[in-house]
Amino acid sequence: MMIEMVKRSVGHALTVALFLGLSWGGADAQETEDGAEDIQNVLLTFHLIEADGYTGQDPAISDIVAELRKLLNFEGYRLLSESVFNVGLALQQVQRSQSLGGSGSQRIVPGDSVDMEIRVSVTAARGSETARATVTLRDLRRSGSINQVRDLLQATVNMRDGQRVVLGSARRSPGEPVLILIVTARMDPDLSSERAPVSCESARELRDRTLRLTGDSEFAASVYQKVLEKQCQEDR
């Protein structure tokens, strides 16, 4: 297990790299002069997990919990929300060089709690196999008519396709449980041919579980349907 520290400005940030045995088809990518392909889109899946307030076992995140227990001493962990969104990367001129960049944000509702927001800024060098993401988790509490928006944690990390990263942990207030934010990145093109393929059945189960957790969002449905169609064709 590789553990490294990531740049942070709010909260605690540990990076834990977990490599997944999944294949992901990407869109056609542009090529640089030397033939290397650019990353066109970064699909991010965020898991917001509660610790220090739950003593049971949550089977939905059993694989994640197994790794968290190697680092943290909380009694239990449970999944509060799972959200999926895509960040498209476009060419940007930075001084004399070109790079790729994009950003996005999404509101999440962890259980029956108050809305939160995830903000993401992603950059990548042309022809690179990695992307650099800055992720901010924001608390959107309101007090009467006044918004009390504040950043709970912020982390900057380099990610490869199929890599899962623990971005950090924070409490919304001193008396509340610890929140842990985890992200998994999917990039196109698929730069690794060594990962084991996902079966049609596994892809269908993943789609159904994710849609239940994301409230059957239109974007998530379209993304997972494309993956499902591609994988089921390969299984025939």
Kindly describe this structure.
It is built from three helices and twelve strands; from the N terminus they run E-E-E-E-H-E-E-E-E-E-E-E-E-H-H. Strand 8 (116-125) and strand 9 form a beta hairpin. The chain has two domains: 2-194, no CATH class; 197-236. 28% of the residues are buried. The chain has helices spanning 62-68, 200-213, 218-235; strands at residues 2-5, 7-10, 14-19, 41-51, 77-88, 90-94, 97-108, 116-125, 130-143, 146-160, 163-171, 178-187. With 236 residues, the chain is an alpha+beta fold. The strands form two sheets. The chain has a six-stranded antiparallel β-sheet, with no helix packed on it. The chain has a six-stranded antiparallel β-sheet with strand order 2-10-9-8-7-6, with no helix packed on it. The longest helix has 18 residues, at 218-235. It starts with a strand and ends with a helix. Helix 2 packs antiparallel against helix 3.
